[in-house]
Every structure is written in structure tokens, then in C-alpha cells.
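Field reference: "sequence" (input) and "structure" (output). Example, Ribokinase:
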Amino acid sequence: MNTMPRRRVLVAGSANLDFVVRAPRAPAPGETVLGGGLQTFPGGKGANQAVACARAGDAPTTMLVALGDDPQGARLRDSLRDAGVALVEKRAPGVASGVAFICIADSGENSIVVAPGANELLAGEDLPPLDGISHLLLQLETPLASVTAYAERARAAGVTVVLNAAPARTLPPRLLAAIDILVVNEGELAMLAGDTGDLEAALRRLPVPCAIVTLGGDGCVARDGEAILRQGAFRVDVVDTTAAGDTFCGVLVAALARGEPLAHALREASAASALACTAAGAQSSIPGRAAVQAMLEARDAGARRAGAGPAHRRGTRG
């Protein structure tokens, strides 16, 4: 009998090639804003999270993804493989791979429009066998019926199901009933739980065992059962916030798959998310574990010199 613990992460979700333009600000309705040069980067919430998980170390990562037979798909495929992500690929001949159009303001914040393309073809029956899988990580850039089917099948198999409920939308009760850990930002929390004036109360209204809300420069708050955990953000010079939330999710799940406690996973994910804001692009900005550990060690050393505990400072989106 195989007694090795299951610790492989399966990510099922989207992959998009990002078309990125920098501008002084995002255009208002009906407004044209002149921007800078056009750049392209591999992205997509699912693919970004898979890359973040793989780079976090000691959490082998597989991704279920749908790609077209086009240059965009080839580039996305190469980026995932280069990051060490094993692929379970649904080929979509004659269908364009997903793309996203991103405007990055001088503040570092971004506005995004996605054309899903092949991502829309992921079906419930496409989920691979779950042998050896400890965690399934999902998002909402693929069909909701498929996401629900994946979550229910994984829950039945004893796999921990993690959903990043982004982009924001109403979630059916069947899906919520199959979720172990729900990750949202403040806007997504408001859609799912109503008023967020009291974050702890809003998190308690979510019918899942564990709920986490990311708060940008204010860090994140988690409700694990009845316990509340708070993690501050890490101060960095922001270049581009694209994939910061995805980095948080991927690194969080990797740490949990390694057996780390939730408090440790939140801290590691927050540090990785901050580092992702210091470089341009989506997957190109996601740090490796060595960089994350160096940041945490430097902050701890600084806190010890100051006679305090681990440094939890106001900073960027985590």
C-alpha cells in the first residue's frame, strides 16, 4: 500500500495571453487615453495560479487547461511547462486561445477585459483522475457548471477544494457546499456576503469552512472555523498589480499542500503577492520560493533588531 502523503496540487482553469498597455489612467466611459507601447505576457487566472504554486516549491503542480492550436496557445503552453507545471491539456482546434486586454495605470492598478476563447470549452468530464492530489484550486474564468462539477467530484474524493471566486459572480449553493477554502477580494466578498463594514461578520456569513478576504494594502483576514487570523501586507514599490491576487492564491495552496499551518501560508502568500507587484506582467512577475523566503527572513531580522515580532506592515495587494 502506498503510504506517501498526497501533496500534488491540481489547478483547473483559464490561460490567456495578456495584451498590456500602460497609460496615465484607465479611460472613463467614452474616453480615449493615449498609452505607451503594447506588450504581451502569458496570463489567465488559472495559469497564473498554477505557475505561482509550482514556483512556491515542494508542491508538484498539474493544470487542466484548454488551449487552441494557435501562436497564443503555443506561448501559453511553453510558459506553463517552463515553470514546471505538468499539463492535462484539452486541445481546441479552430478555436482561439483565451486573451486578455489590460490597461495599467501609472498607479500600478489595472483594468482587464477577457475574451475566453478555448477556456469556454472546459467541460465537467475533463477533470483528470485525482489520485495523489491533495488540493484542487479553481477560479471563475471557465464555465460555472464545469467548476461546480470539478469541486463536487474532488470533495467526494477527499481532496481539499479551494475556490478563488474571481471574477465576481453569484455562486450557486451546490458549488459553495463543495468548497473547503474560499478566497475573495473585498468586492467579491460584498457580492457573496453583503455589507462588508464588519469583515469578520461578513466572512462568517459565507457557508464554507474557511474564508479569506484579501484587502490590498491592508493585508488579508481569514476566518477558519470560528478563529480569525489577520496578516498584514508587505511594503514594496508597486510597478504592476497584475497577478498579485493569483500569486497569493497559488502560494497559499502550495504552502497548505506542504502541510504548513494556515497562518504560515497566509504570511508566505502575502509576501509573494507583494513581490509580484514589483515587476511587469502576470507570470513574468511571479517570484520563486527563494525570493519569498529572503523577503520574510529580512523582515524578521529587521523586526528582531527593532525588538518586535515578525514585521506586518501596510503595503500592496496581498
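The chain is about 30% helix and 25% strand.
The domain at 8-305 is CATH 3.40.1190.20 (UDP-N-acetylmuramoyl-L-alanine:D-glutamate ligase).
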